[in-house]
Design a protein that fits this description.
Protein name: LuxR family transcriptional regulator
Number of helices: 43
GO molecular function, one term: DNA binding
Region (Disordered): 759-779
Pfam family, one: GerE
Strand content: under 5%
Largest sheet: 5 strands, parallel
Number of domains: 5
Number of strands: 7
Distance between the termini: 86 Å
Helix content: 55-70%
Domain HTH luxR-type: 774-839
Amino acid sequence: MVTGGLGSGKTELLRQCADRAVEAGALVLSASAVWSEQSLAGGVLEQLAQSARPQPELAHRMGELIASCATLRPDHPRSARLLHQLCTTVLELSQRHPVVVSIDDVQFADSVSRQFLLQLRRRIFLSRVLLLLSEWEHSHSLSLRQHAEGNERQACHIRLGPLGEAQIKAMLTEHVGRATAAKLAPLWSRWSGGNRMLVRSMIDDLVAGEAADEWRLGPTAAGSVLAALHRWEPSIPAVVRAMAVLGDGHPVDFVARLAEVSTEVAQQLVGFLDTSGLVLGGSFRHPGVRAAVLESLSTTERAALHGRAAEVLYRCGEDATTVATHLLAHGRLDDEQARWAVDVLRVAAEQALAADDVDAAIRYLELALPAAEGPQRLEVNRVLVRAWWRINPAASAVHLEPLHAAMSTGELAGRDVVILLWHALWTGDHDTVAEVLRLCRENPDVLDVQSAAELRIVCQFHGVDLEPVEVGAAQSVVDPWAEAAHALGQFWTTRFDRRAVAAAEHVLKSSRPGETAPEMVATALLVLTFAGDAGSAEHWCGRVIDEAVNGRVRTWQAFFEVVRAHLTLRRGDPATAFRLASSALDLLPTQGWGVSIGYPAAVLFTALTELGDRHRLEELLRLPVPKAMFDTIVGLFYLHARGHAHLACGRALAAISDFQQCGLLMERWGADLPLVAPWRLDLAEANIALGRRDAARDLVTEQLTRPGIGRWTRGIAMRVLAELSEADERVSLLRKSLELLKSCGDGLALARTQRRLDEARGGATDDGPARRPGRGSVAVLSDSERRVAELAATGHTNREISALLYITVSTVEQHLTRVYRKLGVKGRAELPRDLAPLGI
């Protein structure tokens, strides 16, 4: 009796024994039992008769007896006599030469053939008959009576265990070098569990150049595993499929339920697979085995199994994410499933959002939505809006209507109110903004303190008057969030103080991507920046972006890449700012930006103006922006930057229109925000370009006489005023401008003033007023020309300058042509080496 697990080499051992017996002159009668033929009476005996063809007389006699047995019930008295005659025939034959009766997988033998084996087993004592049987270890199909018979008399029991690492190494050495065999043997031992069949087929794949790795088996190995699994009764493929679909780590009773077998049978079969080396601790040793099983299923079969697995796991109390994964693989919700699956999918989506897996959350919710009804549908839409908000705000629009309806009936509260308002502000939907604020005013309790604080800042960021809104909790409770919102909100209304800086730091420490309105965090960063702590602002901005990237919150990542570009621009690096703002635009589709598209556009306008890239400025001026943007704070950034782009391109009247619109917006809001757009000073510069010096002076004076003017605004005013002054006074005013701006952290404004001061010093003497710079003076160069000239003078090629300044090679060549002409030189070799660094 040879026993062993699946693929342990039992069949091969029987074959080799039979070959040796034939060589020794024995007659071998062989058969292989299969599960599907257990109901075929005498099926194994027929195979034995067919193998007796070398003895025609014997084959004929056996065939007649077997045919007669097959027509009778096993308990019929004549059946026993016929089987006795059949045994006698075999025993008589053994008197002439030895007889070997070899039966593979005897556990699948039909009842008539089993009766024959029992009789033969009792009668072969002292005969020349060898009964050679193989059986799967842990088989639950073999008759206990047959086991008992086998143990009553002397018998040889051979158990085939798994191959050891040394044996695997020896087998490998026959096909690859010793070093390779020594390297592969430990891995293959772990992957195969010592299963002979699997090791042999892996060697075949290795020789064919399709070796297994940590994740996949070669085609021969995968095919041999599947073939072996399907040789036995349907319960083992069913259990294996259940294990593959459920994945690792599930109890045997879960497997039993999915395979629709008893827990006892499932335990026995999992134990058998463990003995075979394919399974360890209830999990597949190699993921390639699981993959092969799953790939053997049709799409319909696999989907159906996942649907049943979801229900089994749900009934057994598994967590929502595990159940939802199977529902997703099932692909749809049946009517019966929908009763419990919608809530499971929603909970799983919320768990996925908490784990920053936005894509999974959206897949769960979109599967649930068609089957959701009533309150469930509102909940699914609510979470869908939150999920889409993280990666593409425009895509959430189709899910907003149920939230609108819920808001009007008082079913929406807290953060969901802020999200609904945020979407309306982001897309410029002023009617919805007014309606949400009205409902908040009528029912202040819909907002908790933090939501009220966020709502306040979001509205201020977008230029919405919040005065009529009573945010109950925020008004009635002295709360840190309320205090922080009030302090930060000063930035968008009047001068801010140190309380705003402290509030900014607290907000940045407490905010999380996707869970806080980005406008609140952006306000905190801008407060730090304009308070002169640009380094801290850049540090926090970098952390926010890293968290957004790690959390896959693309909306935050895009928005704060623009904030970083803005901070980089203030530091005096327009080339990097242009690159950052451009990459931010690529993260979201244009419609996904809503009214905030003006923010990256504003940074790009300023960067390109500084770089002197008029070609790209003209392209940017054609970028479509929503009309609603011009009623927001973002619109101020945009108009201020676009106005200066017009001014750089010689369109002073267009610039004046943009600057005047900035002023009108602020007057309408009852606010003055020179830190965002110093529109009076902008208008002064435009009037200077038109030669209207008196009007320009009046505008500067008006700005300087306003109450509460800050150092940054005063510093800019000093620079503009210098343009209207005589040479000696100009130098003094520019020095004052430098002194004021040095503490503000605005490297861009500082560089502009420094260049103006250098020009003024170059044209003034102790004896008289300033002279116009003559030919050959560096002061005649524009800012963009001077940047290009500086890099060319230090040995950079045109292509390198193009990459550093983020402008085209053609623009570099145009700038250099003008530089050569103005300085009266023939080429870069004659450029002066004393060009002042511009902070590139």
